[in-house]
Amino acid sequence: MKKLYLIDISSLFFRSYYAISLHMKNEKGEPTNALYGVFKMLHKLTKEQSPDYLISCFDSKKASFRKEIYPDYKANRGEMPEDLEQQVPYLKMMMDVLKIPYIEKPGFEADDIIGTLALLGRKKKLNTYIISGDKDFAQLVDKNTFLYDTMKDIIYDTQGVKNKWGVFPDQMLDYLSLIGDSSDNIPGVRGIGPKGATTLLEKYGTLKKIYKNIKHISGSAQKKLIDGEEDAYLSQELIQLKTDMKIDLSLKEAALELPHQFSEQDQKQLKDFLEKLSFKSFRNVFFPNKSSSEQKKTQPVSKPAHKSKGLIKKEEFLEQLEPYASLWLGSQEDHMYLAFKKRITLLEPSDYKDVGKILDEKWVRYCGYNLKSSWKKLDCVKPIAEWDAMVAGHLLDSKTSKSFKNLCYLYLKSTLEDSSSVDDLYKFHQLLRSNLETQLKKSNLESVLKEIELPTISVLYHMEKRGLLLDVEEVERQSKKLEVDIKNREKKIFNLIGEEFNISSPKQLSVILFEKLKLPKGRKTKSGYSTDSHELIKMKDLHVSLPFIIEHRELFKLKTTYTDSLLSLVNPKSKRIHTQFRQTATSTGRLSSVNPNLQNIPIRTERGRQIRECFIAPQGSKIISADYSQIELRILAHITKDPGLIKAFENDLDIHSATASEVFNIPLKDVTVDLRRKSKAVNFGIAYGQGVYGLAEALGVSRQEARDIINNYFKKFKKIKDYIETTKEESFKKGYVETLFGRKRFFDKSEFKNPRLKAAIERAAINAPLQGSASDLVKKAMIQLDESLPIPLLSQVHDELLFECPEDCIELESQEIISIMENCVKLKVPLKINLAIGSSWNEAH
Q1: Are the C-beta atoms of 305 and 406 separated by less than 8 Å?
Q2: Measured between alpha carbons, how far is 413 from 828 in angstroms, rounded to an integer?
Q3: Cis peptide bond N-terminal to 755, omega within 30
Q4: What phi and psi values does residue 146 have, to the nearest 5 degrees?
Q5: Which of 80, 294, 365, 653 could be disulfide-bonded to 290 (CB atoms 3.0-4.6 Å)?
Q6: Using omega within 30 degrees of 0 as the cis cutoff, is the peptide bond preceding 769 cis?
Q7: Residue 326 in contact with residue 386, Cβ under 8 Å?
């Protein structure tokens, strides 16, 4: 059967933007990363899949007919990033130069065009492949229609859909109608998730039959379904794809024509297009007539056999592997390869743990990309990192995390193919290391990598492997209590406002607040006036319902983001949560975490703090929390050498009260709670670039009063003002700022010319040396603690470290923790640790 490929081009364009380096530009400095991703996929598709027919489908600029059905459809979508919008005009140009027909219908989405063409494919007895990562297309899959996610290189047939989503394609529409889709703001049935939807459809077959049998459905599911019936059928109407559109395109027009078949004029247009976008590697693929030296510089990796002929058996490899050797790790699809000198072996997943034990015994030093991920597969005990291209690349450019392929393209000017042999992968690992080490040396970043980042990988690995013990019963109790409280807040809000609405919908809440209640409008967004937490708090006294709406938002977030999430993430056997720490996700060097995000557990409210009650110590042990006191302000004192700040810290004064005494010119003993609050805002605001407007808003005072406070602050702490002004100037002159330990935050000098960007860049420049130095200092402490303490370091949340300690050695280990943390670095002011102990994380505060 002939093959028809239908491309959801808008989806591919967006996904490419986030998958490929944001700093990829042509010779004119125009962004090209999303276009490169699309072009690369099209080239790979035509080369490897040999389509008979290929059609590209675009979303219309005109609002979809679904907006008329449901005005909130896709209401939560943000604006297109500016550097992505700049690439849009080239997208259709790309289709033209590649001679790929494209279709766009006013008022309709690409999904509907694809739905119609998929039906045409069935009628014409073609094998039809839908190129997209959107699960909505799974409803079209049948014996001759497939969903092809090229980003993940997965093709879903009917069984593949069942394996992935738990239902067959003919149930997919009903499944999606039940669970909704947050990305498109489709409501679904509130409280029914994927598991619940799958269970219902397995038993009843369709959405219609579920509601026919509603009286037989017991428990909370029945109530959720009854309450959400209208939303379920609305969602079904929104998700169902149109398959009856009028398409003015014949299959003959969609027949694939490859570049070597183009006319001379068409080939010239393609060549000009590639040169305009600076896609040199593709230009050399299609038009290999450049000088040999330039070809060598940009040629893609060849596509040899998947598994190298030079591979040796793992037993022979391990026998020859020397103790303390530099060992390279890499992934090749579902396998892992090991390389040492000129020897390479390929491991099956079943080999990993046994081989990991042998490698532990040899104390090898690991090299590769994202070592932590490979160590988990090998189940290493105490691995040592010698080289990691992921963290090295991040030190040179912290704006975006980069894949190994992107690093190869950026630093080696070569395109790494998915089918490259392990020989080539090993070769590129070594070449990339050589290039990155040269760049690190030029930027004086070698010591940051070797002394901070590489040792930190091992620390994070140990923390992730250990995990935090979770009190599952406490989580379930909090989750149920939150659900009851959320319902109570809803009833209260509906009674006070006089009607029911979706409180979690920004669009619906905006209508209630600004149209029905006529409250003053604040910040304007693309979809209306903002109802974010900041705006709600500003106007909380203007209507009796607003405090309850703010509470509802907090409770809803705690339940969905934390209690429900913790229950899904906990290891069922160990009852531990193994969060993943990310080392390359921030521009200042701060760590972040996901699954769950421990860094963002809210602690300003009592209900938020209660979440920490769920993390506990095992029987016979306690949690120790050790927190650096005012670390960034101490670093500010060290960097600026400001005598006022230094004196306050040397005398162990409350820094905010001491600041208030200076700024408001009153004795320390007379500082009130309100004056201390104002000084705290000053300390954490002005020192990070906050201006008059920001301080006035933070304190709830007039701009003139805020201006007076700032002026008084800078009179008393003159060296801080000098630091701010000097940092602004140097960030522009040098193109970077630096931490105490040599980490650099780089800036694009051209961005300083943009008034909208300049202020934000200057704030970032002021903040980076302080926050970055604090992050580096904490990492240095973590490295020493991991090496010296017999008890495990469990977690890091910014300036706080958590430990698990047997009760009989708490006093000894507590003193050791304080000693290491306070002495890991010497500043002009003393470092101070607040240490607390408890049976839970919350109690240890």
Answers
A1: no
A2: 45
A3: no
A4: -130, 150
A5: 294
A6: no
A7: yes
- Classified as helix, coil or strand, 51 is coil
User: Nearest to residue 394, comparing CAs of 745, 758, 805?
Assistant: 745
What does DSSP say about strands 127-131 and 145-149: parallel, antiparallel, or unpaired?
Answer: parallel
| C-alpha dihedral, 125 to 130 to 135 to 137, nearest 10° | -40
Orientation of helix 88-97 relative to helix 9-19, angle to 10°: 120
Strands (E), 322-380: 326-332, 335-340, 343-347, 365-368
**Alpha-carbon distance 372 to 498, whole Å?**
54
The rounded distance, in Å, linking the Cα atoms of 458 and 366 is 11
Q: Dig out the tokens for 304 from the structure.
A: 């040899």
Residue 629 is which amino acid?
S
The secondary element (H helix, E strand) that includes residue 581 is strand 580-582
Separation of alpha carbons 539 and 811, rounded Å: 49
Q: What are phi and psi of 627, to 5 degrees?
A: -125, 125
- Using the structure block, give the residue that is written with the tokens 């979770």: 470
Contacts of 807 (CB under 8 A, 6+ apart): 620, 621, 622
Give the list of residues 6+ apart from residue 829 with CB closer than 8 angstroms, or none: 634, 637, 638, 645, 646, 649, 650
Report the run of H or E that residue 838 belongs to, with start and end. strand 833-838
Q: From residue 462, how far is each of 375, 415, 612 by CA, in Å? A: 10, 34, 21
Q: How far apart are CA 305 and CA 824, in angstroms?
A: 51
Distance, CA of 135 to CA of 175 (rounded, Å): 11
Residue type, 697: E
Give the whole-angstrom CA distance, residue 563 versus residue 477.
Answer: 9
Could you write out the DSSP letters of every residue in 725-791? HHHHHHHHHHSEEE-TTS-EEE--GGGGGSHHHHHHHHHHHHHHHHHHHHHHHHHHHHHHHHHH-SS
Q: Is 138 in a helix, a strand, or coil? A: helix
Q: Which residues pair with 149 in a beta bridge?
A: 154
Strands 3-8 and 53-57: parallel
User: 749 near 730, Cβ under 8 Å?
Assistant: no
What is the spatial distance between Cα 743 and Cα 41, in angstroms, rounded to a whole number? Answer: 36
* pLDDT averages per 10-residue partition of the chain, 845 residues: 92 83 76 90 87 90 79 72 84 91 88 92 92 92 92 87 91 93 84 89 92 88 89 90 84 85 87 89 75 41 46 91 93 84 91 94 95 94 95 88 82 74 88 95 96 96 95 94 94 93 86 89 70 84 92 89 88 92 90 86 84 94 95 94 92 91 90 89 78 80 87 89 91 92 88 74 90 95 94 94 95 95 94 96 90
8 Å CB contact between 235 and 176 = yes
Q: Find, among 298, 303, 301, 278, the residue nearest to 413 by Cα.
A: 298
Using CA atoms, how far apart are residues 15 and 40, in angstroms rounded to an integer? 13
Instruction: Report yes or no: 589 and 807 within 8 Å, Cβ to Cβ.
Output: no
| CA distance linking residue 482 with residue 493, whole number of Å | 16
Look up residue 264 and give its two tokens. Answer: 């001379």
> What's the token pair of residue 415?
């395109």
Give counts: helices (H), strands (E), the chain: 38, 24
Which amino acid appears at position 385 of this protein? A
Q: Tell me the C-alpha distance between 728 and 688, whole Å.
A: 11
Claim: this prediction has a pTM higher than 0.70: no
DSSP string covering 188-235: --TT--HHHHHHHHHHH-SHHHHHHTGGG--HHHHHHHHHTHHHHHHH
Joined tokens for residue 54: 């290929």
Cβ proximity of 386 and 369 under 8 Å = no
Q: How many CB atoms sit inside 10 A of residue 399's CB?
A: 14
Burial class (CB in 10 A: 0-12, 13-18, 19+), 117: buried
Element (H, E) at 268: helix 264-276
Beta bridge partners of 626: 801, 835
